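Inverse folding, one chain.
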């Protein structure tokens, strides 16, 4: 695998920095500054924490997705994987074994990257909950409402169901 040139790396970091700065400016002007002017400091802290968690989570998801796709593309270039695909398509030989070999190879390729995707998603979700919890319009009331709906759905799923008529 060829390494990126330092010029491309610098451009990539500049794009990342510009994106983060634009998001931070938008978060300040649209969310944080009005809360500071109103003196709602607990909401400022919760909003800033939520924005930070969501940004970090998005970055981790991008990294995990990039690594996932890159390793999958490298797998497609392997001769053993291609031989098994041809064996499955031709329906000759031990097709079942070739399918299982490819599934095992896919799992070995994918499983190091899946936790990054889940971690990123969890951080984005935690950031969203934190931002909603800190929103002065909704506050804790929305979080409790969502939790009660989740509890109702969990309770409903565990209750025995009657026979359909």
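Residues assigned per position:
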């Amino acid at each position: 695998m060829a390494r990126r040139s330092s010029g491309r790396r610098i451009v990539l970091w500049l794009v990342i920095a510009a994106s983060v700065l634009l998001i931070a400016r938008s978060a300040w002007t649209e969310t944080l500054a009005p809360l500071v002017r109103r003196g709602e400091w607990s909401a400022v802290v919760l909003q800033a924490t939520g924005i930070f968690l969501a940004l970090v989570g998005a970055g981790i998801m991008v990294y995990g997705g990039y690594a996932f796709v890159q390793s999958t593309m490298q797998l497609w270039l392997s001769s053993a994987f291609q031989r098994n695909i041809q064996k499955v398509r031709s329906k000759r030989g031990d097709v079942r074994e070739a399918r299982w070999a490819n599934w095992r190879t896919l799992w070995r390729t994918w499983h190091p990257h899946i936790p990054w995707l889940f971690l990123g998603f969890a951080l984005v979700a935690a950031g969203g909950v934190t931002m909603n919890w800190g929103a002065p319009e909704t506050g804790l009331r929305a979080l409790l409402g969502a939790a009660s709906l989740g509890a109702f759905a969990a309770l409903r799923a565990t209750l025995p169901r009657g026979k359909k008529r």
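Residues 85 and 91 are 10 Å apart (CA to CA). The helical segments are 6-38, 41-76, 79-90, 95-110, 114-134, 139-158.
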